[in-house]
């Protein structure tokens, strides 16, 4: 049982570091799309590590923490994708040093939402 405490403490520390780096990335990035990428990847890994570490520190909570980790693994990337897609559809342009939009050509060939209804 002593090894579980060390693993749990290491995961809690690792999760805290990733959450801090995610917050730093959100603060430092220039636009919404970069902030979403920095925040989502780091917060997903950080929250999963932290919650799994709590599960190792309290073994009776391990099953519940695994369920939460699976939910975070599905919900965080999905929600950031929805936010980014909504921002793009509302013409929020990314910060770029040179003009480039690879998705614009593809989006023009897709049917409009009004046509699908």
Q: What is the strand content? A: under 5%
Instruction: Round the mean pLDDT to the nearest integer and report it.
Output: 86
The coarse overall form would be elongated
- The helix/strand series, from N terminus to C terminus, equals HHHHH
Number of helices: 5
Straight-line N-to-C gap:
58 Å
Integer count of domains:
1
- Low-confidence residue ranges: none
Helix content: over 70%
Strand element count: 0
Tell me the radius of gyration.
Answer: 19 Å
Instruction: Give the biggest sheet.
Output: none
Main structural class: mainly alpha
Description:
By secondary structure, this protein is mainly α. The chain has one domain. It contains 5 helices and no strands. It has helices at residues 2-28, 32-57, 62-89, 102-109, 113-116. It is elongated, with a radius of gyration of 19 Å. The termini are far apart. The model has no long low-confidence stretch (mean pLDDT 86).
How would you describe this structure in keywords?
117 residues, mainly alpha, elongated
Question: What would you say about this model in short?
Answer:
By secondary structure, the protein is mainly α. It has five helices and no strands. The chain has one domain.
């Amino acid at each position: 049982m002593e090894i579980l405490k060390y693993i749990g403490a290491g995961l809690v520390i690792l999760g805290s570091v990733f959450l801090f780096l995610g917050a730093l990335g959100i603060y430092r990035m220039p636009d919404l799309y970069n902030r979403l990428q920095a925040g989502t990847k780091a917060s997903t890994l950080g929250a999963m590590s932290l919650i799994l570490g709590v599960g190792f520190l309290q073994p009776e909570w391990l099953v519940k923490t695994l369920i939460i980790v699976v939910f975070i693994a599905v919900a965080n990337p999905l929600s950031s994708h929805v936010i980014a897609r909504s921002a793009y559809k509302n013409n929020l342009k990314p910060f770029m040093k040179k003009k480039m939009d690879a998705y614009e050509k593809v989006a023009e060939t897709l049917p409009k939402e009004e046509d699908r209804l």
